[in-house]
């Protein structure tokens, strides 16, 4: 009985604590981006080309498969001294945002434009226009802080022994509307990765309705329910791409830059499905983290200039199969990816709006649909 | 006059010390969690009831909650049965080869968590090695035979006996053999001796182990995700997933508070029961336990067979983790173990990566430091909590239990937010972005467990010991350090060990708090299994696990030596 009262006291205390903290600091600072930029932007032109060799921390989700070694070695050859930290896009973003007052990282390479906009919003990034900015123009909204180096369409792929271009689904909606595909396609099983969120966003964005629940029509919600109901929820310990290759679940999806490596691993050349509505597409970007140490910021900018340049990012894409944003590096891309770039159509969606709704959509899916 | 002066000074010193200690505990262990709860639950200035309604209206959440509590209750029963069986086989009955069994029964300490579950999956799962071979013999078998509640319970039971092997076993070993002898002389049958003399003496430690097992069950994460399948989902993966996105953190916090409240009620009931019955060994000069022969031959054969069976079940997955670490990913997913395809490629990948084996040393240092600090603080706090049961100490205890339920992500965020600016408590320093913060995080997450174990160790100390020392004129300090502490030493070593091992591959807190120059094992291990990495990178997690197993084994050997001394 006594313990019960204590429990109540604890809960009351938690509530009281929040009650008196009226002007508590907010988790998300409002648009302080402009203030965060400081005077660095003016220095862009004056940036010298020679690296000083000052140690910089590069956080990236492009470090697996020996890419960390590649990056470190080549950066060293170019005169940089870097520490590579392998973090997922979401973790990297959360870290930059939470460390805004005392950053431990200097360059962020790899998260999506949406993740970068939340970093910009808290004023965590340094204002910067890289040398190669013109080569990547027109691919994403210019914010003055983060710049695309890679285009990342999410593509539907199928086992070529099971489907041909004619028999494969023409649209995502075919998956749940046509019985022949029921149980034959993998659906997202977690909701924090960029690819999974883009797939969900790509579906729900086709049913936007101002009066609907969370901006989506009833039809949209039943569509996404059907999508999950008739799809295969790949359990941990199985690989969706492996299932596709073995024919067990012959349709799945992947981010474009994953295609080369996954195909090689499972020894398959999958059938790429170009849907009529187009593919959910975003760009992956790179940016410099703001820091009180101006020398660090300058060295980081030099590094980003180097990394995004056609020769460097081109060689990187050659081995890893990326779809490059840098137009003057397109000859480096592997044939499979160049082929996709020529044939795919980015889905026409207001991604800024979709991304702003995504957390709530995902919560609803997790609680009511999945 | 002198005497009075001394007393005053003593009093002032004690007061100052307690202000510093309690202040420190509040600022570093409690305040960050409360800050986070406040920020997530009252993000818009007032409490938002919408998530509560949505959560209560969700069939999935209700089902997950029911599953979690069902699992917790069943697990408490099965782990106790298995754990008590194991320690009786090791120390109470004469069973041949108990030396080997002893090694095998330590396997839950050597390897646990996601990698172990994955090993089960690659053995018994739909495409697993064992399943593939079973299907050759029995083509009609359902490939998903090892999935659902039963599979989860079995894996978690086999992996859940650490506390029994460490604590309950210590209690069993410290039983006064004279009590057993006395019962034997009175002609009491051996089974009755077990149930009426031996087991009751173990009650406080079994109790503590049960509570910990219950909490492990309630907060089950990796096992249900992999082996539960669609029909057996539990609540923690959902909480975890909510805590990872900014706008849904309040859902995570609400679910965590709900889970915490229910468990606090369960704990309170158990605390009450624990207080009611205090069984202690009453002798002052203890005679060491002698192993009992099992009289009936039939029983002996069955017990021995079962003991070895369990040993095999606990060690085989570990052996396979070792084998997997040499395999290419394609073979793993196809359930195809082919020696010709094995190579050192995965090991080379790990050793030649830019971090190399540095994470192993980083994690050893952080885990050891955190384990020592948390044990020291809790030795002090648990003493106060058991000695003086007031509302203040009860509140303190409750607050210290918050980390049991608050998702690790939220604990980490709380720390980052609380210390992202210079504060008076940190002597004007910003802790966010320094090497200290992760250590703090590690200490916080191991606090509830350590407190619980040490509290139960204090409870099982013979009160007469302390009294005797006092009567002989020893000061409180002297009594504590010369009399009580030596008695507590085995528990202290065990808690240290389990904390150390539990932190070696910690990920959820580490990923937010680590310093980029010092990446811990959990972070590099997890990077290998992320969805956006290539499939073959996943194999590196087995290599890291092998490294962890080596470190854990060495630590266990080291700690067990320490205990003997």
In CATH terms, what is the fold-level topology of the domain at 58-324 in chain B? MetI-like fold
Shape of chain A: globular
Secondary structure class of chain B reads: mainly alpha
Q: What's the mean pLDDT score of chain A? A: 87
- End-to-end Cα distance of chain B: 45 Å
Tell me the number of structural domains of chain A: 2
CATH architecture designation of the domain at 58-324 in chain B? Orthogonal Bundle
State the helical fraction of chain A. Answer: 40-55%
If interface size is counted as residues with C-beta under 8 Å from the partner's C-beta, which chains form the largest one? Answer: A-B, 82 and 82 residues
Please work out how many helical segments of chain B DSSP would assign: 26
Radius of gyration of chain B: 25 Å
Give the CATH H-level superfamily of the largest domain in chain A. Periplasmic binding protein-like II
CATH classification, class level of the largest domain in chain A: Alpha Beta
Structural class of chain A: alpha/beta
Please report the number of helical segments of chain A.
14
Shape verdict of chain B: globular
How many β strands of chain A by DSSP?
Answer: 11
Largest sheet of chain B: none
The SSE string of chain B, one letter per element, is HHHHHHHHHHHHHHHHHHHHHHHHHH
CA radius of gyration of chain A: 23 Å
Number of strands of chain B: 0
